Amino acid sequence: MDLESHMKMCNLCKCDHSKYGCQYVGTLEEVSTHLQTCYYDNIKNFLQNTDDKMRDLQLTIRQKDQEIGFLRSMLGKLSERVDRLEKSLEMKISYLDENQSRMEKLVEDLDENQREMSNEMLDNRRKFSTINHEIAYIIGRFNDEPQQLYRCKGTFVGHQGPVWCLCVHGDYLFSGSSDKTIKVWDTRPSYTCHKTMEGHTGIVLALCTHGNKLYSGSSDQTISVWNIDTLEHEKTIAAHENAVCTLVSANNMLFSGSLKVIKVWDAHTHELKKELTGLNHWVRALVATEEHLYSGSFQTIKIWNINSLEVTNVLETSGGSVYSITLTNEHIIAGTYENCIHVWDRKSHDQVETLTGHVGTVYALAVISAPGSTRVFSASYDRSLRVWNMENKTCQQALIRHQGSVTCLAVSRGRLFSGAVDNTVKVWQ
Question: Among the four residues 51, 110, 226, 331, which has the most C-beta atoms within 10 Å?
Fold first, then answer.
Protein backbone atom coordinates (compact mmCIF):
# COMPACT_ATOMS: atom_id res chain seq x y z
CA MET A 1 0.00 0.00 0.00
CA ASP A 2 1.36 3.37 -0.90
CA LEU A 3 1.63 6.33 1.47
CA GLU A 4 -1.32 8.19 0.02
CA SER A 5 -3.70 5.24 0.48
CA HIS A 6 -2.37 4.63 3.95
CA MET A 7 -3.00 8.27 4.94
CA LYS A 8 -6.67 7.95 3.96
CA MET A 9 -7.19 4.90 6.19
CA CYS A 10 -4.79 5.77 9.10
CA ASN A 11 -6.45 7.10 12.28
CA LEU A 12 -3.26 7.69 14.27
CA CYS A 13 -2.22 11.22 15.31
CA LYS A 14 0.53 12.93 17.23
CA CYS A 15 0.34 14.48 20.66
CA ASP A 16 -0.76 18.09 20.66
CA HIS A 17 2.59 18.93 22.25
CA SER A 18 4.69 17.25 19.57
CA LYS A 19 5.92 20.61 18.45
CA TYR A 20 7.49 21.07 21.87
CA GLY A 21 9.21 17.69 21.75
CA CYS A 22 6.60 15.06 22.73
CA GLN A 23 6.95 11.98 20.53
CA TYR A 24 3.69 10.17 21.52
CA VAL A 25 1.57 8.80 18.62
CA GLY A 26 -1.87 7.11 18.98
CA THR A 27 -5.55 7.23 18.16
CA LEU A 28 -7.63 10.24 19.07
CA GLU A 29 -8.87 8.54 22.21
CA GLU A 30 -5.36 7.45 23.17
CA VAL A 31 -3.97 10.90 22.54
CA SER A 32 -6.85 12.42 24.61
CA THR A 33 -5.98 10.09 27.47
CA HIS A 34 -2.26 10.81 27.03
CA LEU A 35 -2.74 14.58 27.27
CA GLN A 36 -3.95 14.18 30.85
CA THR A 37 -0.55 12.86 31.87
CA CYS A 38 1.72 14.40 29.18
CA TYR A 39 4.83 16.00 30.65
CA TYR A 40 4.75 18.72 28.10
CA ASP A 41 1.23 19.77 29.11
CA ASN A 42 2.62 21.08 32.40
CA ILE A 43 5.19 23.27 30.67
CA LYS A 44 3.18 24.19 27.62
CA ASN A 45 2.67 27.75 28.90
CA PHE A 46 6.39 28.17 29.43
CA LEU A 47 7.09 26.62 26.05
CA GLN A 48 4.41 28.81 24.47
CA ASN A 49 5.97 31.90 26.03
CA THR A 50 9.40 30.72 24.92
CA ASP A 51 8.09 30.16 21.43
CA ASP A 52 6.55 33.61 21.40
CA LYS A 53 9.82 35.09 22.59
CA MET A 54 11.72 33.17 19.92
CA ARG A 55 9.38 34.57 17.29
CA ASP A 56 9.87 38.05 18.74
CA LEU A 57 13.64 37.47 18.80
CA GLN A 58 13.63 36.25 15.22
CA LEU A 59 11.58 39.28 14.25
CA THR A 60 14.04 41.50 16.09
CA ILE A 61 16.95 39.76 14.39
CA ARG A 62 15.32 40.27 10.99
CA GLN A 63 14.82 43.94 11.86
CA LYS A 64 18.46 44.23 13.01
CA ASP A 65 19.59 42.49 9.83
CA GLN A 66 17.63 45.08 7.89
CA GLU A 67 19.23 47.86 9.97
CA ILE A 68 22.69 46.33 9.46
CA GLY A 69 22.02 46.17 5.74
CA PHE A 70 20.95 49.81 5.81
CA LEU A 71 24.05 50.77 7.83
CA ARG A 72 26.25 48.83 5.43
CA SER A 73 24.64 50.68 2.56
CA MET A 74 25.23 53.99 4.37
CA LEU A 75 28.82 52.97 5.18
CA GLY A 76 29.43 52.22 1.52
CA LYS A 77 28.08 55.61 0.58
CA LEU A 78 30.20 57.25 3.30
CA SER A 79 33.28 55.38 2.01
CA GLU A 80 32.55 56.69 -1.45
CA ARG A 81 32.21 60.22 -0.05
CA VAL A 82 35.46 59.81 1.91
CA ASP A 83 37.21 58.61 -1.26
CA ARG A 84 35.87 61.62 -3.15
CA LEU A 85 36.92 63.96 -0.31
CA GLU A 86 40.40 62.40 -0.17
CA LYS A 87 40.83 62.85 -3.91
CA SER A 88 39.55 66.43 -3.63
CA LEU A 89 41.88 67.05 -0.65
CA GLU A 90 44.84 65.59 -2.55
CA MET A 91 44.07 67.86 -5.46
CA LYS A 92 43.81 70.88 -3.13
CA ILE A 93 47.05 69.94 -1.33
CA SER A 94 48.78 69.51 -4.68
CA TYR A 95 47.43 72.89 -5.73
CA LEU A 96 48.61 74.47 -2.45
CA ASP A 97 52.05 72.85 -2.85
CA GLU A 98 52.31 74.26 -6.35
CA ASN A 99 51.23 77.68 -5.07
CA GLN A 100 53.69 77.43 -2.18
CA SER A 101 56.50 76.56 -4.59
CA ARG A 102 55.53 79.51 -6.75
CA MET A 103 55.37 81.77 -3.68
CA GLU A 104 58.79 80.54 -2.46
CA LYS A 105 60.22 81.17 -5.91
CA LEU A 106 58.61 84.62 -5.91
CA VAL A 107 60.07 85.36 -2.44
CA GLU A 108 63.50 84.18 -3.62
CA ASP A 109 63.22 86.41 -6.67
CA LEU A 110 62.17 89.34 -4.47
CA ASP A 111 65.09 88.68 -2.09
CA GLU A 112 67.49 88.49 -5.01
CA ASN A 113 66.07 91.71 -6.44
CA GLN A 114 66.41 93.34 -3.01
CA ARG A 115 70.04 92.20 -2.72
CA GLU A 116 70.75 93.46 -6.22
CA MET A 117 69.10 96.78 -5.39
CA SER A 118 71.07 97.01 -2.11
CA ASN A 119 74.34 96.29 -3.92
CA GLU A 120 73.40 98.75 -6.63
CA MET A 121 72.57 101.39 -4.00
CA LEU A 122 75.91 100.72 -2.27
CA ASP A 123 77.74 101.02 -5.60
CA ASN A 124 75.84 104.20 -6.41
CA ARG A 125 76.64 105.68 -2.98
CA ARG A 126 80.29 104.79 -3.44
CA LYS A 127 80.37 106.21 -6.95
CA PHE A 128 78.51 109.34 -5.85
CA SER A 129 80.93 109.85 -2.96
CA THR A 130 83.86 109.22 -5.29
CA ILE A 131 82.53 111.70 -7.83
CA ASN A 132 82.05 114.31 -5.10
CA HIS A 133 85.61 113.87 -3.92
CA GLU A 134 86.94 113.90 -7.47
CA ILE A 135 85.01 117.12 -8.12
CA ALA A 136 86.40 118.59 -4.91
CA TYR A 137 89.85 117.50 -5.98
CA ILE A 138 89.46 119.06 -9.45
CA ILE A 139 88.21 122.29 -7.91
CA GLY A 140 91.14 122.18 -5.51
CA ARG A 141 93.55 121.79 -8.38
CA PHE A 142 92.20 124.96 -9.94
CA ASN A 143 92.37 126.83 -6.65
CA ASP A 144 95.55 125.42 -5.11
CA GLU A 145 98.87 124.08 -6.22
CA PRO A 146 98.94 120.88 -8.27
CA GLN A 147 98.42 117.63 -6.31
CA GLN A 148 100.05 114.26 -6.91
CA LEU A 149 97.73 111.64 -8.40
CA TYR A 150 98.20 107.91 -7.71
CA ARG A 151 97.52 105.39 -10.44
CA CYS A 152 97.49 101.60 -10.62
CA LYS A 153 100.80 100.40 -12.09
CA GLY A 154 100.26 96.66 -11.97
CA THR A 155 98.44 93.69 -10.47
CA PHE A 156 99.84 90.57 -8.78
CA VAL A 157 97.65 87.55 -9.62
CA GLY A 158 98.14 84.06 -8.20
CA HIS A 159 96.36 83.56 -4.90
CA GLN A 160 93.36 81.24 -4.86
CA GLY A 161 91.63 83.13 -2.05
CA PRO A 162 91.26 86.60 -0.51
CA VAL A 163 94.50 88.41 0.43
CA TRP A 164 94.42 89.41 4.12
CA CYS A 165 97.91 90.76 4.88
CA LEU A 166 100.97 92.29 3.21
CA CYS A 167 104.55 92.92 4.33
CA VAL A 168 107.56 94.42 2.54
CA HIS A 169 111.23 93.49 3.03
CA GLY A 170 113.73 94.90 0.55
CA ASP A 171 112.59 93.98 -2.95
CA TYR A 172 110.26 91.30 -1.62
CA LEU A 173 106.56 91.72 -1.03
CA PHE A 174 104.96 88.98 1.06
CA SER A 175 101.21 88.34 0.84
CA GLY A 176 99.09 86.05 3.05
CA SER A 177 95.81 84.56 1.89
CA SER A 178 92.79 82.41 2.67
CA ASP A 179 94.41 79.76 0.48
CA LYS A 180 96.75 79.14 3.48
CA THR A 181 99.86 80.21 1.55
CA ILE A 182 102.34 83.08 1.58
CA LYS A 183 103.47 84.31 -1.82
CA VAL A 184 106.78 86.08 -2.31
CA TRP A 185 106.62 88.76 -5.03
CA ASP A 186 109.53 90.52 -6.72
CA THR A 187 108.66 94.24 -6.57
CA ARG A 188 111.21 95.20 -9.15
CA PRO A 189 109.77 95.96 -12.60
CA SER A 190 109.12 92.26 -13.37
CA TYR A 191 106.42 92.00 -10.69
CA THR A 192 106.64 88.19 -10.67
CA CYS A 193 105.92 85.58 -8.00
CA HIS A 194 109.29 84.38 -6.71
CA LYS A 195 107.96 81.58 -4.50
CA THR A 196 104.86 80.20 -2.76
CA MET A 197 105.46 79.18 0.86
CA GLU A 198 103.19 76.56 2.42
CA GLY A 199 102.94 75.37 6.01
CA HIS A 200 99.88 76.86 7.68
CA THR A 201 96.67 74.87 8.02
CA GLY A 202 94.48 77.98 8.29
CA ILE A 203 94.02 81.42 6.77
CA VAL A 204 97.17 83.58 6.89
CA LEU A 205 96.01 86.74 8.71
CA ALA A 206 99.20 88.60 9.72
CA LEU A 207 102.79 89.16 8.53
CA CYS A 208 105.79 91.07 9.87
CA THR A 209 109.60 90.94 9.64
CA HIS A 210 112.47 91.25 12.10
CA GLY A 211 116.02 91.07 10.79
CA ASN A 212 116.13 88.27 8.24
CA LYS A 213 113.07 86.53 9.69
CA LEU A 214 109.49 86.63 8.44
CA TYR A 215 106.73 85.89 10.94
CA SER A 216 103.26 84.78 9.85
CA GLY A 217 100.15 84.47 12.02
CA SER A 218 97.18 82.30 11.11
CA SER A 219 93.69 81.20 12.05
CA ASP A 220 95.34 77.87 12.93
CA GLN A 221 96.46 79.66 16.16
CA THR A 222 100.18 79.41 15.32
CA ILE A 223 103.04 81.71 14.33
CA SER A 224 105.42 80.40 11.68
CA VAL A 225 109.04 81.60 11.43
CA TRP A 226 110.60 81.80 7.94
CA ASN A 227 114.16 82.58 6.83
CA ILE A 228 113.98 85.44 4.34
CA ASP A 229 117.39 84.60 2.81
CA THR A 230 116.43 81.02 1.94
CA LEU A 231 112.62 81.47 2.00
CA GLU A 232 112.42 78.25 4.01
CA HIS A 233 110.31 77.43 7.05
CA GLU A 234 112.28 77.30 10.30
CA LYS A 235 109.85 76.93 13.17
CA THR A 236 106.22 76.85 14.26
CA ILE A 237 105.16 78.47 17.54
CA ALA A 238 101.93 77.29 19.22
CA ALA A 239 100.98 80.86 20.02
CA HIS A 240 97.34 81.36 21.01
CA GLU A 241 94.08 79.61 21.84
CA ASN A 242 92.39 81.60 19.06
CA ALA A 243 93.36 83.01 15.67
CA VAL A 244 96.49 85.17 15.46
CA CYS A 245 95.05 88.43 14.04
CA THR A 246 98.03 90.79 14.13
CA LEU A 247 101.83 90.76 14.35
CA VAL A 248 104.39 93.54 14.86
CA SER A 249 108.03 93.63 16.00
CA ALA A 250 110.10 96.24 17.86
CA ASN A 251 113.05 96.32 20.29
CA ASN A 252 113.88 92.64 19.65
CA MET A 253 110.36 91.69 20.65
CA LEU A 254 107.54 90.15 18.64
CA PHE A 255 103.97 91.10 19.58
CA SER A 256 101.01 88.91 18.55
CA GLY A 257 97.36 89.91 18.98
CA SER A 258 94.39 87.59 19.41
CA LEU A 259 91.12 87.50 21.40
CA LYS A 260 91.51 89.82 24.44
CA VAL A 261 95.27 89.22 24.71
CA ILE A 262 98.62 90.36 23.30
CA LYS A 263 101.57 88.02 23.75
CA VAL A 264 105.14 89.27 23.85
CA TRP A 265 107.84 86.97 22.45
CA ASP A 266 111.63 87.20 22.33
CA ALA A 267 112.34 87.82 18.63
CA HIS A 268 115.49 85.66 18.74
CA THR A 269 114.69 82.77 21.07
CA HIS A 270 110.91 82.88 20.45
CA GLU A 271 110.28 82.38 24.15
CA LEU A 272 107.14 83.89 25.65
CA LYS A 273 108.08 86.89 27.80
CA LYS A 274 104.71 88.26 28.89
CA GLU A 275 100.99 88.35 28.22
CA LEU A 276 99.24 91.72 28.02
CA THR A 277 95.61 91.43 29.17
CA GLY A 278 92.77 93.78 30.08
CA LEU A 279 91.64 94.04 26.46
CA ASN A 280 87.93 94.01 25.72
CA HIS A 281 87.75 92.28 22.32
CA TRP A 282 89.77 90.98 19.39
CA VAL A 283 93.07 92.84 18.92
CA ARG A 284 92.81 93.60 15.21
CA ALA A 285 95.39 96.41 15.04
CA LEU A 286 98.95 96.65 16.39
CA VAL A 287 101.60 99.30 15.69
CA ALA A 288 104.97 99.59 17.46
CA THR A 289 107.63 102.29 17.71
CA GLU A 290 110.83 102.38 19.73
CA GLU A 291 108.88 103.86 22.64
CA HIS A 292 105.30 102.66 22.44
CA LEU A 293 102.98 99.84 21.37
CA TYR A 294 99.52 100.84 20.09
CA SER A 295 96.73 98.23 20.21
CA GLY A 296 93.19 98.56 18.85
CA SER A 297 90.13 96.64 20.06
CA PHE A 298 86.47 97.53 20.65
CA GLN A 299 86.16 101.35 20.65
CA THR A 300 89.52 101.56 22.42
CA ILE A 301 93.17 102.23 21.60
CA LYS A 302 95.63 101.37 24.36
CA ILE A 303 99.11 102.87 24.37
CA TRP A 304 101.75 100.70 26.11
CA ASN A 305 105.27 101.63 27.19
CA ILE A 306 107.47 99.40 25.05
CA ASN A 307 109.96 98.81 27.87
CA SER A 308 107.74 98.36 30.93
CA LEU A 309 104.85 96.90 28.88
CA GLU A 310 102.43 98.90 31.01
CA VAL A 311 99.50 100.99 29.72
CA THR A 312 100.30 104.69 29.67
CA ASN A 313 97.21 106.07 27.89
CA VAL A 314 93.81 104.90 26.66
CA LEU A 315 92.06 106.59 23.72
CA GLU A 316 88.30 106.13 23.68
CA THR A 317 86.60 106.20 20.30
CA SER A 318 83.29 105.47 18.62
CA GLY A 319 82.35 103.46 15.57
CA GLY A 320 82.79 99.92 16.90
CA SER A 321 85.99 97.90 16.81
CA VAL A 322 89.27 99.48 15.73
CA TYR A 323 90.45 97.58 12.65
CA SER A 324 93.52 99.61 11.71
CA ILE A 325 96.07 102.04 13.20
CA THR A 326 98.86 104.08 11.65
CA LEU A 327 101.11 106.91 12.84
CA THR A 328 102.46 110.11 11.33
CA ASN A 329 104.90 112.48 12.98
CA GLU A 330 101.97 114.43 14.38
CA HIS A 331 98.98 112.11 14.51
CA ILE A 332 97.58 108.77 15.67
CA ILE A 333 95.07 107.58 13.08
CA ALA A 334 92.57 104.72 13.48
CA GLY A 335 90.04 103.11 11.12
CA THR A 336 86.85 101.62 12.57
CA TYR A 337 84.14 99.10 11.82
CA GLU A 338 81.59 101.85 11.17
CA ASN A 339 83.40 103.50 8.23
CA CYS A 340 85.14 106.34 10.12
CA ILE A 341 88.80 107.37 10.45
CA HIS A 342 89.60 109.11 13.76
CA VAL A 343 92.63 111.36 14.19
CA TRP A 344 94.34 112.24 17.50
CA ASP A 345 97.21 114.59 18.26
CA ARG A 346 100.17 112.33 18.98
CA LYS A 347 101.48 114.48 21.85
CA SER A 348 98.36 115.65 23.64
CA HIS A 349 96.22 112.61 22.68
CA ASP A 350 93.34 114.98 21.95
CA GLN A 351 91.05 113.94 19.10
CA VAL A 352 91.38 116.56 16.36
CA GLU A 353 89.41 115.20 13.40
CA THR A 354 87.14 112.47 12.05
CA LEU A 355 87.58 111.69 8.36
CA THR A 356 84.46 110.45 6.57
CA GLY A 357 83.87 109.24 3.05
CA HIS A 358 84.08 105.45 3.15
CA VAL A 359 80.83 103.48 3.20
CA GLY A 360 82.36 100.33 4.68
CA THR A 361 84.71 99.16 7.43
CA VAL A 362 88.20 100.73 7.22
CA TYR A 363 90.39 97.61 7.23
CA ALA A 364 93.85 99.14 6.73
CA LEU A 365 95.83 102.39 6.90
CA ALA A 366 99.27 103.37 5.57
CA VAL A 367 101.38 106.53 5.35
CA ILE A 368 103.66 107.96 2.66
CA SER A 369 105.54 111.06 3.79
CA ALA A 370 107.48 113.50 1.66
CA PRO A 371 109.02 116.89 2.49
CA GLY A 372 106.14 119.26 3.11
CA SER A 373 103.37 116.68 2.68
CA THR A 374 101.98 113.61 4.39
CA ARG A 375 99.52 111.30 2.65
CA VAL A 376 97.46 108.71 4.53
CA PHE A 377 95.95 105.83 2.55
CA SER A 378 92.84 104.00 3.75
CA ALA A 379 91.47 100.66 2.49
CA SER A 380 87.84 99.71 2.97
CA TYR A 381 85.15 97.10 2.68
CA ASP A 382 83.53 99.40 0.07
CA ARG A 383 86.25 98.26 -2.45
CA SER A 384 87.96 101.62 -2.55
CA LEU A 385 91.20 103.19 -1.35
CA ARG A 386 91.27 106.84 -0.38
CA VAL A 387 94.17 109.26 -0.28
CA TRP A 388 93.98 111.82 2.53
CA ASN A 389 95.93 115.08 2.68
CA MET A 390 96.86 115.40 6.36
CA GLU A 391 97.70 119.09 6.03
CA ASN A 392 94.05 120.03 5.46
CA LYS A 393 92.43 116.69 6.51
CA THR A 394 90.63 116.24 3.18
CA CYS A 395 90.28 113.37 0.74
CA GLN A 396 92.57 114.04 -2.20
CA GLN A 397 91.72 111.01 -4.33
CA ALA A 398 89.62 107.82 -4.41
CA LEU A 399 91.19 104.75 -6.01
CA ILE A 400 88.70 102.16 -7.28
CA ARG A 401 90.19 99.24 -9.21
CA HIS A 402 89.64 96.24 -6.93
CA GLN A 403 86.61 94.00 -7.47
CA GLY A 404 86.28 93.15 -3.76
CA SER A 405 86.84 94.60 -0.31
CA VAL A 406 90.34 96.03 0.14
CA THR A 407 91.78 94.41 3.28
CA CYS A 408 95.47 95.35 3.65
CA LEU A 409 98.14 97.88 2.64
CA ALA A 410 101.93 98.06 2.52
CA VAL A 411 104.36 100.84 1.49
CA SER A 412 107.78 100.55 -0.13
CA ARG A 413 109.93 103.21 -1.86
CA GLY A 414 107.03 105.56 -2.53
CA ARG A 415 104.79 102.79 -3.85
CA LEU A 416 101.58 101.55 -2.27
CA PHE A 417 100.52 97.89 -2.37
CA SER A 418 96.90 96.88 -1.71
CA GLY A 419 95.51 93.38 -1.15
CA ALA A 420 91.83 92.52 -1.55
CA VAL A 421 89.11 89.88 -1.37
CA ASP A 422 89.31 89.62 -5.19
CA ASN A 423 92.51 87.51 -4.64
CA THR A 424 94.81 90.17 -6.13
CA VAL A 425 97.48 92.64 -5.01
CA LYS A 426 97.69 95.97 -6.83
CA VAL A 427 100.57 98.44 -7.07
CA TRP A 428 99.91 102.19 -6.91
CA GLN A 429 102.31 105.04 -7.58
Answer: 226
